[in-house]
Write a structure and sequence with these properties.
Number of helices: 4
Distance between the termini: 11 Å
Helix content: 25-40%
Mean pLDDT: 93
Strand content: 25-35%
Structural class: alpha+beta
Order of helices and strands: EHEEHHHEEEE
Radius of gyration: 14 Å
Number of strands: 7
Low-confidence stretches: none
Amino acid sequence: MKAYTTKSKVLSGTDFKEVHKKARIIYKDIKKKTKRKPYVRSAYFKKEKIFLDLFWSHLYDKKSQWDRTRRTKYFECGLELIQNSRVKPTSKENPNKKSETLHRFLGMTPDKKLFAVQIKENVQNKNKWLISIFPKKY
């Protein structure tokens, strides 16, 4: 499977507080641009909106700080991938909910770290939400 190579690097930091602060600054800049739900437009989905608010609630569901930190570090790279990538994702029906489709995009940072971005699409109304960004092994 092909992976989109980003120009932005992984957010630096060792603890969740430090990395979270940097990611929230990026998120607030996006949030300022709209009065409603924050979103970015996707190149692959023909400039349709990908809503970002579900990402944070999914992130806070994770129990360990280590896992939260690991995922948050790729936030900027994940947003760039969504906005610029035209590489076809792997898509499958959500096994837990038949009315949803899950799309998984692969990306690579400039220092050759592989990561994945997962987007959930509602089949009826075609709304899309960023669920998760996480590092992957080769």
